[in-house]
Description:
Elements: H1 2-13, E1 18-23, H2 33-44, E2 50-56, H3 63-69, E3 73-79, E4 89-93, H4 106-118, E5 124-130, H5 143-161
Parallel strand pairs: 1-2, 1-3, 3-5
Antiparallel strand pairs: 4-5
Amino acid sequence: MKSFIDMLGNVVAGCSRIAILGVGNELMGDDGVGIIAARRLSAIINKPCILVLECGVAPEAFTSIVLRFQPDLILILDAVDFGGSPGSVSLLDISSLDRASISTHKPSLTIMAKYLEMNGLKARILVLAIQPQFIGFNVGLSDKVEESVNFVLRYLVEILDSI
């Protein structure tokens, strides 16, 4: 996870405005990780240069807010099956979601990215992906995903405090 933290720090380092979008469905177990992470993050971070949104299962519905904010980085928090062990974390370019096997929001994320680009936004868009253990009707995160969220948020807050 150390290399992930270094990579995240390098990505954020050159940014002056960051939009963080939590994506997911809290009723579907680990699929709610993005929403839960965004909610926790918004309770801690209060900076005008950072926008945190809980987008649920329809992140494309928040494009007007993102366009008005004009971020240079969009960081999407989501559960993505990229073949890792449960709770593992990866930083993916939005275009790599075409190769990821499951993200229930994959079509809407790529459509949203294209829409933002077509409307003149020149932001880098990355997905902070957490490998789910269980996606199915269940409220709450699995233990491994919960541990990963806590780890990621601890370092993300530290990194964001520096901008």
